[in-house]
Write a sequence for this structure.
């Protein structure tokens, strides 16, 4: 991973001036958590970031002090809510990554997290809209299907909404899809590049396995689709009450942030999946949808359509749309209630 990332970083640095590369602040909100800490460690090693700003209601400064002993150039600062910590953490940030909030325990759905996490994300988005209205927002906190609409509605309220700058991070779904397909077929993950669309929970996660180069039997298709849709549950179950995916998620989020940074610095042709304001299913009343998105100098560029779907994938899509619509409405209503 690091070899690839370093290469990507080098490409971006060659293409753009090092002075531009030297002025990039990335803030992580929820930085002392299970995702936040390994994500901060990986971002500390990203040479495209000049200032890593870490905020958490507990231990933000502790995590920052620890990372600041690493012999890699760049500033690291840490904050708690004291002394306007959130404001200082996000002011001038190019990207704000939000993994703040509670994770699932066995038996819970992501939507069960709504009551706690919606308020956390709303408050962080309120601060971002005030102090960092130009930042690109990368939302990890679940339920992503609803938290992205929450952030968007808050930005609309503050009249600083730009849909090109608000992303739900769904990278883990394609990371898992690649891994699970390679395990099933005994191939390299490098061969298994799978498009995953829809949203980020259960049936709203739609892998488009007909578009890959590998062939699957009907039974394999069903088993693999189910594993990709419910991969998060495997980790929740294995962690047995102590949380959900953190390490694979921090890997996925670091990949997304690195791709976005490269694109913001002007590199072209960078495509990542993301849950964004999308025209794809607007006619069916869905404002947001995850699909492959070309990232560009100001955020969301071309939103790729789904391509050809087989009958099975059409059924998956039919099952996903009503659930996604409900999740979106819940987020929107929460802000306006
Ligand atoms: P965690 O409990 O380990 O960490 C969350 C951190 O958020 C804690 O350090 C906590 O102090 C902090 N926090 C709580 N309220 C805060 C606030 N108001 N401001 C700043 N920080 C605050 O949880 P985790 O395992 O890191 O997961 C975090 C979230 O990410 C969960 O909602 C989880 O469901 C979600 N998640 C999403 C994906 C995805 O693919 N998008 C993957 C894994 C986890
Ligand atoms: C995941 O996909 O691992 C995350 O959304 C966390 C979870 O609750 O499963």
């Amino acid at each position: 991973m690091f070899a690839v990332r370093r290469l990507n970083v080098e490409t971006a640095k060659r293409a753009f001036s090092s002075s531009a590369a030297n002025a990039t602040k990335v803030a992580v909100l929820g930085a002392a958590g299970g995702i936040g800490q390994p994500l901060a460690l990986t971002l500390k090693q990203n040479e495209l970031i000049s200032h890593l700003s870490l905020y958490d209601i507990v231990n933000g400064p502790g995590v920052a002090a620890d990372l600041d002993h690493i012999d890699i150039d760049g500033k690291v600062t840490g904050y708690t809510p004291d002394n306007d910590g959130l404001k200082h953490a996000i002011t001038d940030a190019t990207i704000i990554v939000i993994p703040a909030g509670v994770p699932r325990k066995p038996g819970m759905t992501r939507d069960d997290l709504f009551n706690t996490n919606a308020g956390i994300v709303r408050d962080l988005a309120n601060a971002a809209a005030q102090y960092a209205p130009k930042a690109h927002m990368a939302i990890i906190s679940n339920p992503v299907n609803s938290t992205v609409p929450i952030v968007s509605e808050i930005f609309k309220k503050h009249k600083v909404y730009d849909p090109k700058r608000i992303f739900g991070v769904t990278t883990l779904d394609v990371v898992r899809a690649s891994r699970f397909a390679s395990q099933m077929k005994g191939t390299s993950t490098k061969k298994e590049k799978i498009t995953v669309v829809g949203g980020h929970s259960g049936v709203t996660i739609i892998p488009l396995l007909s578009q890959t180069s590998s062939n699957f039997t009907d039974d394999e298709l069903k088993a693999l689709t189910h594993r990709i849709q419910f991969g998060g549950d495997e980790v929740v179950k294995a962690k047995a009450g102590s949380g959900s995916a953190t390490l694979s998620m921090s890997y996925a989020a670091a990949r997304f942030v690195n791709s976005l940074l490269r694109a913001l610095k002007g590199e072209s042709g960078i495509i990542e999946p993301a849950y964004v304001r999308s025209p794809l299913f607007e006619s069916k009343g869905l404002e947001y949808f995850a699909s492959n998105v070309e990232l560009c100098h100001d955020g969301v560029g071309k939103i790729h359509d789904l391509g050809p779907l087989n009958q099975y994938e059409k059924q998956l899509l039919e099952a996903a749309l009503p659930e996604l619509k409900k999740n979106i409405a819940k987020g929107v209503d929460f802000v306006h209630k």
